[in-house]
Amino acid sequence: MGKVIAIANQKGGVGKTTTAVNVAASMAATKRKVLLIDLDPQGNATMGSGIDKYEAPATCYELLIEEQPVKDVIIKETSGKYDLIAGNGDVTAAEIKLMEVFAREVRLRNALEPVRDYYDFIFIDCPPSLNQLTVNALAAADSVLVPMQCEYYALEGLTALMDTIQKLASVVNPDLKIEGVLRTMYDPRNRLANDVSEQLKRHFGEQVYRTVIPRNVRLAEAPSFGAPAMYYDKSSTGAKAYLALAGEILRRKDKQTITSKAS
Ligand SMILES: Nc1ncnc2c1ncn2[C@@H]1O[C@H](COP(=O)(O)OP(=O)(O)O)[C@@H](O)[C@H]1O
Ligand SMILES: [Mg+2]
């Protein structure tokens, strides 16, 4: 059965979109069937998949608000060899209109039902806030992957984020699991990054991925070529790190539910 993973952190610029695009491509390269959902109105994951967000025939708006069948809004030809549901400015309107519709928290979950078993993995790139779109992602997901930068206050922010996710989950999705905490943009020469990383491991233990994503300029450049890093520079440390992360996700099992963690 397929697995739905929401990539979430209410902070912007922590590597959510970079992770979404590159882990989706890496997973697709292992011959898994993968769908990436761009739930961020900025549409960066869409552009990073080689799809012009202004030209996308349909987006998450049509899926969530107009209730177009999921199969009609999926784009098949992406540079990362995964399928995509695009995001662009229209998704901002979806966020607002969601407030008015029936069963607004479970729109995405219901919409994905027909394709949930077709895909091995569905990744959702969340916007940088805990708005109705992110609530939809967390309601639809089996688990949440949290990318974070090892900076000062990161641990505090992460604990607060986990609390919020847990509260949300207890209302909309009590079975939600923590897929893992991912250290992104990591610079091993940075003393503070190492300290924060150690604290993170003490606090979150096995939930922290062994794979670390290094700061790597190729990861930052690849989106301007409309491609995941592995198709832009496959020998880059960034591309290799995301391939390793895909391997780690495939090997890991037995997740704790986020709601049971509190008790
Ligand atoms: N490992 C990395 N090394 C270098 N630059 C990165 C890395 N991860 C992300 N970036 C860059 O940092 C910025 C923010 O990353 P992004 O994935 O868009 O974060 P988010 O989606 O959380 O806002 C982007 O310009 C991206 O290209
Ligand atoms: Mg983003």
Q: What would you say this structure looks like, in words?
A:
41% of the residues lie in helices and 16% in strands. With 263 residues, the protein is an alpha/beta fold. The chain has a single domain (3-262), classed as Rossmann fold (3-Layer(aba) Sandwich), CATH 3.40.50. Strands 3-2-4-1-5-6-7 form a 7-stranded parallel sheet, sandwiched between helices. Magnesium ion is lined by residues 16-17, 40, 44.
What is the correct CATH architecture?
3-Layer(aba) Sandwich
End-to-end CA span? 29 Å
Rounded mean pLDDT score: 94
Query: Briefly, what CATH class?
Result: Alpha Beta
The residue ranges in which pLDDT falls below 50 over 5 or more consecutive positions are none
User: Share of helix among residues?
Assistant: 40-55%
Give the percentage of residues in beta strands: 15-25%
What sort of overall outline do the alpha carbons produce when their principal axes are compared? Answer: globular
Describe the main β-sheet briefly.
7 strands, parallel
Structural class: alpha/beta
The strand count comes to: 7
Number of domains: 1
| Gyration radius over CA | 17 Å
Could you list some keywords that capture this structure?
263 residues; alpha/beta; 7 strands; binds adenosine-5'-diphosphate; binds magnesium ion
